[in-house]
């Protein structure tokens, strides 16, 4: 039920309750954990900056490697290889730092935790944050299912698929829903959140565990599920990059679709539904902003 | 649309976020070095150990592979050619004068030659070696099951850890050593290996004898083992954290 009445065109914004206390707590704890896990993970990666596919490492044919090589003039170049391709990534990957103090390292100091090369501490941060991140994720996923929020807020309804084209068009034009329509996630949001919550996040935990030799003895199916420890390491990395990509797009969309309102909704729970804009022309095509008439179940 | 107060608040929010981020980055390295964080890291590792011990039973085995999976060359890491004089002499003599000393909290301390070890029942296993750096390598090991050896010398009840003292000083520093608790020491795959891929153990991989603890990371698996000591606590050895790398910030629990 709406908390403060319905948003109607021509009215001031209406505040609704958008996020529950547990959702907000999880969101911010998860935010901190993901940053620590990503940056300490890059520190760990730097200890052996190459990825392989399979049970063990085929050192002469990595799927990805980041290193430094001397060019024809003897100057250091950062070189990243993916499959058969070779990229010059000097300054960021392979070699980085201030010009008078260049350092040969895969990911640059500003991207790793700790900053200096320090594998043992990178691992300490990673596993400490992992102990907060994985139990919180498990609790949150249970909570979404048990409270019915997964079904109510995240699983797409059948009729939504019909508007997929419009939703994509509106997103590309950075035109975000207002009024009643903004009360719920749209299809693209739902699909993205589902992919992250049920896909990337559980996968990053499971592939992380597969890299543990003791876990492989406890749960040998992990190795079969991911095609071996080195495949798991590669998948873990891909998940990490996927989460980073999600994070950047998420951040950008939070900013352009009303940063203050969005942040407030994730801190206090209250979200303002701004009234729908009056039609630009008297006879605007009705498909531009389809009015939401269906009854809602919450 | 936007009230003036909103834009003010928005600017404030943006600035605080950016300032917060910069402070956070600078603070993180200082935090990493703090005693409080060290305690937290130790607690987290102890939790990992307990959780993994709960999930992996005493007997649960590390995966064993087929001969087709064996890597063409087994990567050697850490010390690959000890230059300590005593070790060089033993190596030049084909390790005929080498003896594995077993002492500490045992009933019958012994010194065993390589040939004597080879007459004991052997176990052969093709397993994956996981380095803490991130790479893995598959090889075939043959050696004496550590549990058999411990039974032979009679472990006293007070003994809680098996310490492996090695011939090498990594980068000329302190002597390498490692330790296992009794549970991991008596695991059926835990062995002292003298052969790799069907040949005598090469010097690069720890000749004449190295530890295999297949549910642990590579740094646990001491190479160039000279002496085994059963102890109640390892706090008096090295810097007291149970191993060469443990003394340098790595976790004693090397199951992940
Ligand atoms: C509880 C969850 C997690 C566990 C148990 C875990 C475990 C691990 C382990 C054991 C390693 C070391 C691999 C090696 O030896 O090279 C590692 C590396 C790494 N982790 Fe995680 N991790 C978790 C979550 C995450 C998350 C959420 C991210 C990113 C957002 C992440 C990013 C990385 C990266 C980039 C590496 C570097 C090497 C690689 O790509 O595998 N990890 N993780």
TrEMBL record, chain A:
Write down the SUPFAM superfamilies for this protein, in alphabetical order. Answer: Transmembrane di-heme cytochromes
Q: Which GO terms describe its biological process?
A: respiratory electron transport chain
Q: Which residues cross the membrane?
A: 25-45, 125-146, 193-215, 235-260
Any one Pfam family here would be Ni_hydr_CYTB
Q: Which residues form the Cytochrome b561 bacterial/Ni-hydrogenase domain?
A: 18-269
Name this protein carries in UniProt: Thiosulfate reductase cytochrome b subunit
Recorded hits in PANTHER family, A to Z, give:
CYTOCHROME YDHU-RELATED (PTHR30485:SF1), NI/FE-HYDROGENASE 1 B-TYPE CYTOCHROME SUBUNIT (PTHR30485)
Give its localization: Cell membrane
**Gene3D superfamilies the UniProt entry points to:** Transmembrane di-heme cytochromes, Chain C
Whose protein is this, by species? Onishia taeanensis
The membrane topology of this protein is: Multi-pass membrane protein
Q: Name one GO molecular function term.
A: electron transfer activity
Q: What is its main location?
A: membrane
Can you supply one Gene Ontology CC term for this chain's record?
A: plasma membrane
Q: What is the lineage of its organism?
A: Bacteria, Pseudomonadati, Pseudomonadota, Gammaproteobacteria, Oceanospirillales
Matching entries from InterPro entries are given as: Cyt_b561_bac/Ni-Hgenase, Di-haem_cyt_TM, Hydrogenase_cytochrome
Q: Where is this region: Disordered?
A: 279-298
Provide this UniProt record's keywords sorted from A to Z.
Cell membrane, Membrane, Transmembrane, Transmembrane helix
UniProtKB/TrEMBL annotation, chain B:
The name this protein carries in UniProt is Oxidoreductase molybdopterin binding domain-containing protein
Q: Which PROSITE patterns match?
A: PROKAR_LIPOPROTEIN (PS51257), TAT (PS51318)
PANTHER family from the xrefs?
Answer: BLL0505 PROTEIN, PROTEIN-METHIONINE-SULFOXIDE REDUCTASE
Q: Show the InterPro entries listed in the entry.
A: OxRdtase_Mopterin-bd_dom, OxRdtase_Mopterin-bd_sf, TAT_signal
Query: Do you know which CDD domains this protein is assigned to?
Result: bact_SO_family_Moco
Where does the record place the Oxidoreductase molybdopterin-binding domain? 96-232
Highest taxon of source: Bacteria
Q: Which organism is it from?
A: Onishia taeanensis
Q: Which Pfam families match?
A: Oxidored_molyb
């Amino acid at each position: 039920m709406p908390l403060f009445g319905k948003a109607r065109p021509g009215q001031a914004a209406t505040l609704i309750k958008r996020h529950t206390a547990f959702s907000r707590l999880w969101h911010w704890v998860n935010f901190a954990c993901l940053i620590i896990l990503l940056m300490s993970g890059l520190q760990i990666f730097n200890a052996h900056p190459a990825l392989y596919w399979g049970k063990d490492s085929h050192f002469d044919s990595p799927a990805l490697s980041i290193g430094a090589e001397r060019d024809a003039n003897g100057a250091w170049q950062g070189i990243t290889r993916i499959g058969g391709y070779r990229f010059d990534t000097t300054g960021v990957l392979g070699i980085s730092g201030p010009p008078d103090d260049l350092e040969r390292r895969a990911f640059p100091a500003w991207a790793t935790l700790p900053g200096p090369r320090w594998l043992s501490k990178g691992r300490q941060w990673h596993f400490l944050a992992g102990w907060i991140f994985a139990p919180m994720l498990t609790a949150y996923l249970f909570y979404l299912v048990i409270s019915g929020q997964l079904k109510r807020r995240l699983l797409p309804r059948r009729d939504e698929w019909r508007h997929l084209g419009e939703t994509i068009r509106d997103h590309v034009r950075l035109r975000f829903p207002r009024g009643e329509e903004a009360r719920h996630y749209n299809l693209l949001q739902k699909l993205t959140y589902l992919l992250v919550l049920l896909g990337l996040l559980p996968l990053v935990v499971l592939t992380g565990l597969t890299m543990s030799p003791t876990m492989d003895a406890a749960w040998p199916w992990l190795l079969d599920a991911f095609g071996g420890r080195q495949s798991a390491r590669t998948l873990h990395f891909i998940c990490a990059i996927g989460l980073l990509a999600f994070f950047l797009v998420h951040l950008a969309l939070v900013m352009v679709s009303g940063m203050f309102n969005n942040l407030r909704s994730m801190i206090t729970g209250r979200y303002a539904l701004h009234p729908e804009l009056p039609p630009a022309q008297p006879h605007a095509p009705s498909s531009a902003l389809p009015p939401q008439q269906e009854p809602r179940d919450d | 649309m936007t009230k003036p107060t909103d834009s003010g608040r928005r600017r404030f929010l943006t600035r605080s976020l950016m300032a917060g981020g910069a402070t956070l980055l600078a603070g993180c390295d200082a935090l990493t070095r703090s005693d409080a964080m060290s305690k937290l890291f130790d607690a987290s590792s102890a939790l990992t150990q307990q959780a993994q011990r709960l999930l992996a039973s005493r007997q649960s085995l590390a995966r064993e592979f087929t001969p087709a999976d064996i890597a063409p060359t087994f990567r050697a890491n850490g010390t690959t050619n000890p230059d300590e004089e005593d070790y060089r002499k033993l190596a030049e003599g084909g390790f005929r004068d080498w003896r594995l000393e077993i002492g500490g909290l045992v009933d019958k301390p012994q010194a065993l030659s390589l040939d004597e070890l080879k007459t004991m029942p052997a176990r052969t296993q093709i397993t994956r070696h996981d380095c803490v750096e991130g790479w893995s390598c598959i090889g075939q090991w043959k050696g004496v099951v550590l549990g058999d050896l411990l039974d032979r010398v009679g472990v006293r009840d007070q003994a809680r850890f098996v310490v492996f003292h090695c011939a090498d000083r990594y980068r000329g520093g302190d002597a390498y050593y490692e330790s296992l608790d009794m549970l991991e020491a008596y695991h059926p795959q835990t062995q002292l290996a003298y052969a790799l891929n069907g040949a005598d153990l090469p010097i690069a991989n720890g000749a004449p004898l190295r530890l295999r603890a297949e549910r642990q990371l590579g740094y646990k698996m001491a190479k160039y083992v000279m002496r085994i000591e059963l102890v109640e606590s390892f706090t008096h050895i090295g810097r007291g954290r149970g191993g060469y790398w443990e003394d340098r910030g790595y976790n004693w629990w090397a199951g992940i």
